[in-house]
């Protein structure tokens, strides 16, 4: 069973005059089949956690470890992390002009699976995944994320999650900017992947709304660069009722 | 894209002034007026506007009269039935009709060539197969002149391949009769040491369409000067270009679209990728809309993708408008580095870095390649772009 272990993770970014520490000692274990929600106010470092685990060059790991089944994730290149089974659904997916969605998906699948998927089964696989997300077939011929609406970008991210079948999926604010219908479609997609029991999900969100559709096993409150409280789904209900005030007043002010 | 630079206007905008029409800065920036005689041009020293980006020392004497003809250059023309291919001498009246040399090397080429080739497509002849021209150098200096003429309502595609080694200076004339349609693809796939300097002159007839696709990969120094003027209203010109400038190469494309008659269109789009130390690409895009050219619709664009440190791009769009009565005129130039966010996105989907770069660069060129409209040329170009990236540092 795949396990992602984050231990005492400290991460900095370069700022105008020097560096700024964003993550200040994060500890978290996510196992295959589990769903963890990380909730916190804006600027608490939630997205930094996501991008650091994925290996974005902007972030410098100053100490701590991230391992997937004991393998050192931080030693891996960005693409090696993906091939090891990590997936990041981005809050702001990047436009890649001139590269069609179908070409992109197939190139990605080829890299992840170690061989080009057989064309006939692949076409069916993509088609049915797109239908389930209620994506128009013409979508495949558009350039990656170019001119996509907010909802299309998120659906495209979840389409990739469905096709790539990661061991650990990090969803960075996948719910932001979605209307209720799109939120439901995206959540259904995530739940289909979770339903296999083969993915550990780290759901990063500012709002409790998405947790009505994707039920977490664990909820963590993130504030000022670390997890300040962990609990079960009831913690989300408490946040819904009380907001983040309790946490930001105490720890984050420091 | 990072470090994007857009819209650097160098030309001036005026309207309705008769005095200005004769004083075009596009024309006056040149050191001498156009002429067929090399003696009318002083030997450039390198600070002239038209030479300031070009490393004269690498022109192998084309600019100062020391490059003597004597090289081996084979020109082969494979033309479908109905096309006339002739080799003519200097006195042939059809030479030099589309334009006059505007710099010393073009004039040198005109003054020095011995035989010219004239390829004619009779009026109303619509070719279904391209005319294929192979220009192959085997060392030494050569001067050339080629003419392609299309009669009224004729349609043709010409693919010119430049390969091998040598030093070539040439003028190429394209003369389009009324309503004719010509697509020319000129591929510069020279060996590493080749030098190629050429002026391309297109004279676009009334309601005729001219499409030029210039593709430059090889050579030590390539400097091409595609120019378009119109013989009557309703003409259209599309000038597309792709270049892939590697370590140490100098690739220069200077364009002029002279809107000299009313109601013509032009669209210029050049894209280049650069990699390696001292890779140098130069793009000069001159568009002149003369006072008489009311109803002109014109756009020019240059994009550069710098893949590594050590490469240099000079991109200068000049748009000069002498009448306010136009349909549209615009220009854009942007030079950016490889976008790390795109790379991160693709890599985060398991795609290895080199393949991700290949995808992005193919994507960068794809839109332009798709506009060529000649299938086998498109496929070849994409393969060539891949090969360039394979060789990348």
Can you give me a brief rundown of this structure?
Chain A is of the alpha/beta class. Chain A has 8 helices and 12 strands.
Would you mind describing this structure in some detail?
The complex is a heterodimer of chains A (254) and B (393). Chain A is of the alpha/beta class. Chain A has one domain (3-252): 3-Layer(aba) Sandwich (Rossmann fold), CATH 3.40.50. Chain A is built from eight helices and twelve strands. Chain A has helices at 46-54, 78-84, 101-113, 119-132, 150-164, 180-195, 233-242, 245-252, and strands spanning 3-15, 18-31, 35-39, 59-68, 71-72, 86-89, 96-100, 143-144, 168-172, 200-205, 218-223, 226-231. A six-stranded mixed beta sheet of chain A has the order 6-9-10-3-11-12, with helices on both faces. In chain A, strands 2-1-4-5 form a four-stranded antiparallel beta sheet. In chain A, α5 packs parallel to α6. Chain A is globular. The termini of chain A are far apart. The mean pLDDT of chain A is 93. Chain B is mainly β. Chain B folds into two domains: 18-339, no CATH class; 340-393, no CATH class. In chain B, 15% of the residues lie in helices and 42% in strands. Chain B has six helices and 16 strands. Chain B has a 16-stranded mixed beta sheet that branches. The longest helix of chain B has 17 residues, at 353-369. Residues 1-23 of chain B have low confidence and may be disordered. Classes of the chains: A alpha/beta (254), B mainly beta (393). At the A-B interface, α2, β7, α3 and β8 of A face α4 and α5 of B. Chain A: InterPro entries: AAA+_ATPase, ABC_transporter-like_ATP-bd, FeS-cluster_ATPase_SufC, P-loop_NTPase. Chain A: Keywords: ATP-binding, Nucleotide-binding. Chain A: One of its GO terms (molecular function) is ATP hydrolysis activity. Chain A: This is Fe-S cluster assembly ATP-binding protein. Chain A: Belongs to the ABC transporter superfamily. Ycf16 family.
């Amino acid at each position: 069973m795949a396990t992602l272990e984050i231990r005492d993770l400290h991460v900095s970014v370069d700022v105008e005059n020097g560096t700024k520490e964003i993550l200040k000692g994060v500890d978290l274990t996510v196992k295959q089949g589990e769903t963890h929600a990380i909730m916190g106010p804006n600027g608490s470092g939630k997205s930094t956690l996501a991008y650091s685990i994925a290996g974005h060059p902007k972030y410098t790991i100053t100490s701590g470890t991230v391992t997937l089944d004991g393998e050192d994730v931080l030693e891996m290149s960005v693409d090696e992390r993906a091939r090891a089974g990590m997936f990041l659904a981005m809050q702001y997916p990047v436009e890649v002009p001139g590269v069609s969605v179908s070409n992109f998906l197939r190139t990605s699948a080829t890299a992840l699976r170690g061989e080009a998927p057989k064309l006939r089964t692949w076409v069916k696989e993509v088609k049915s995944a797109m239908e389930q997300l209620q994506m128009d077939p013409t979508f495949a011929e558009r350039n990656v994320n170019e001119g996509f609406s907010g909802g299309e970008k998120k659906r495209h991210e979840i389409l990739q999650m469905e096709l790539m079948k990661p061991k650990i999926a990090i969803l960075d604010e996948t719910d932001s900017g979605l209307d209720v219908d799109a939120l439901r479609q995206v959540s259904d997609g995530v739940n289909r992947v979770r339903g296999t029991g083969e993915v550990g999900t780290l759901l990063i969100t500012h709002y409790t709304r998405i947790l009505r559709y994707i039920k977490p096993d664990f909820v963590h409150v993130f504030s000022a660069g670390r997890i300040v409280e962990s609990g079960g789904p009831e913690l989300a209900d408490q946040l819904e009722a009380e907001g983040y005030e309790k946490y930001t007043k105490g720890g984050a002010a420091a | 894209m990072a470090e994007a630079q857009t819209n650097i206007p160098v030309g001036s905008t005026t309207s309705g002034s008769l005095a200005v029409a004769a004083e075009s800065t596009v024309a006056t920036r040149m050191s001498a007026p156009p002429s067929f005689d090399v003696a009318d041009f002083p030997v450039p020293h390198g600070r002239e506007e038209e030479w300031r980006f070009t490393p004269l020392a690498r022109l192998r004497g084309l600019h100062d009269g020391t490059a003597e003809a004597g090289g081996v250059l084979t020109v082969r023309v494979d033309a479908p039935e109905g096309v006339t291919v002739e080799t003519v001498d200097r006195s042939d009246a059809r030479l030099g009709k589309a334009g006059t040399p505007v710099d010393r090397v073009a004039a040198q080429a005109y003054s020095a060539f011995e035989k010219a080739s004239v390829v004619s497509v009779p009026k109303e002849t619509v070719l279904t197969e391209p005319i294929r021209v192979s220009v192959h150098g085997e060392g030494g200096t050569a001067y050339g002149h080629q003419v392609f003429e299309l009669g009224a309502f004729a349609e043709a595609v010409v693919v010119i391949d430049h390969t091998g080694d040598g030093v070539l200076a040439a003028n190429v004339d394209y003369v389009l009769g009324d309503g004719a349609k010509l697509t020319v693809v000129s591929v510069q796939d020279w060996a590493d040491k080749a030098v190629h300097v050429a002026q391309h002159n297109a004279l676009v007839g009334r309601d005729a369409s001219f499409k030029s696709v210039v593709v430059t990969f090889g050579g030590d120094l390539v400097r091409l000067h595609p120019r378009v003027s119109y013989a009557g209203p309703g003409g259209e010109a599309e000038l597309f270009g792709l270049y892939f400038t590697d370590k140490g190469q100098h690739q220069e494309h200077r364009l002029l679209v002279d809107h000299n008659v009313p109601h013509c269109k032009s669209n210029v789009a050049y894209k280049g990728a650069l990699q390696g130390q001292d890779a140098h690409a130069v793009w000069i895009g001159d568009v002149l809309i003369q006072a008489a050219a009311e109803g002109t619709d014109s756009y020019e664009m240059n994009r550069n993708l710098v893949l590594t440190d050590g490469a240099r791009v000079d991109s200068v769009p000049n748009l000069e408008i002498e009448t306010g009565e136009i349909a549209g005129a615009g220009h854009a130039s942007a030079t950016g580095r490889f976008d790390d966010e795109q790379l991160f996105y693709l890599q985060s989907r398991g795609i290895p870095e080199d393949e991700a770069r290949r995808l992005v660069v193919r994507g960068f060129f794809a839109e332009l390649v798709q506009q060529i409209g000649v299938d086998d040329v498109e496929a070849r170009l994409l393969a060539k772009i891949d090969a360039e990236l394979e060789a990348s540092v």
